[in-house]
Amino acid sequence: MNMEKLVWVFNSAGGRFPGAVFTSKLLANEWIKANRLTGTLTAYPLDIGIYDWALSNGYFSIKRDEQLTPEFIGKFTSASQEHYHYEDGEED
């Protein structure tokens, strides 16, 4: 994701929805640390779904028909996204 425009999304441990979105990892780190949060910070490219991003970058290939369904595409995530884990505001 180095050349792409992206945002950093923080999801709290056990949270259902993101708690914050940042334009830089530095800003996200400051907020996470100040609030002693536990969760995951993940980079998301703009203007493309992660499913399409993973396909176009060779991180994922379709192997079954169910992987073409709206349910699968809408819930898709990729371990290839840059991401960091935090415990009590400190990066693991």
Secondary-structure element pattern, one letter each: EEHEHHEE
Our count of helices gives 3
- Tally the structural domains: 1
Classification by helices and strands: alpha+beta
Q: What is the approximate shape? A: elongated
Percent of residues in beta strands? 25-35%
Distance between the termini: 21 Å
User: What value does the average pLDDT take?
Assistant: 95
List the strand order in the largest sheet.
2-1-3-4-5
Major sheet, described briefly? 5 strands, antiparallel
Rg from Cα? 14 Å
Number of strands: 5
Provide the helix percentage.
25-40%
- Detail the poorly predicted runs: none
Structure notes:
This protein is α+β, with helices and mostly antiparallel strands. It has one domain. The chain has helices at residues 25-34, 50-56, 70-75, and strands spanning 6-12, 20-22, 39-45, 83-87, 90-91. A five-stranded antiparallel beta sheet has the order 2-1-3-4-5, covered by helices on one side. Strand 4 and strand 5 (90-91) form a beta hairpin.
Provide key terms for this protein.
single chain; 92 residues; alpha+beta; 5-stranded antiparallel β-sheet; 25% helix; elongated
Topology:
Layout (H helix, E strand, L loop, with lengths): L5 E7 L7 E3 L2 H10 L4 E7 L4 H7 L13 H6 L7 E5 L2 E2 L1
Antiparallel strand pairs: 1-2, 1-3, 3-4, 4-5
Short structural description:
The chain has 92 residues and is α+β, with helices and mostly antiparallel strands. The chain has helices spanning 25-34, 50-56, 70-75, and strands at residues 6-12, 20-22, 39-45, 83-87, 90-91.
